[in-house]
Amino acid sequence: MRFQVGITVAFLAVLLFGLPPGSAEAGGRLPALSYGGGGQGKVMFNHQAHASKGLHCNDCHIDFSGTGKQLFTTRKQGLISLADHKNGAKCSACHNGKGAFDDCNRCHY
After folding, report:
1. CA 106/CA 43 separation, integer angstroms
2. What pLDDT shows up at residue 82?
3. CB count, 10 Å around CB of 73?
4. Per CATH, domain 30-106 is 3.30.1120
5. What is the 3-state secondary structure (H, E, C) of 78-92?
6. Can you say how many angstroms the Cα of residue 101 is from the centroid of all Cα atoms in its chain?
């Protein structure tokens, strides 16, 4: 009995914390996340807005543009520095004025 409870708890933990949100292809609702913005103003990241442009989870979280580069972990940590913005890392890999807008005020409120 104790073993079954342990298995059930472990299974629920994986479901709650270990799996990515439902994919846009499967009709799942992707979360909007809020970050402090490092004193530049709060940032809301809307997964649905990015999915509606044809992006998939792996595009940012696993393999950016086929480079094998991971732009973001999936731990909901918005650890993005000003240097990241200037070096074309993280959000700025796309938001560089070429791939997507680079107007700071469109993300920082």
Report:
1. 9
2. 87
3. 9
4. no
5. CCCCHHHHHCCCHHH
6. 18
Beta pairing partners, 35: 43
Amino acid at 83: A
Give the pTM. Answer: 0.66
Give the domain ranges of the chain. Answer: 30-106
pLDDT digit string, tens, across residues 44-58: 899 999 999 999 999
**DSSP sequence for the chain:** -HHHHHHHHHHHHIIIIISPPPPTTTTPPPPEEEE--TTS--EEEEHHHHHTTT--HHHHHT-BTTTTB----SS------HHHHHTT-GGGGTTTTTSS---GGGTB-
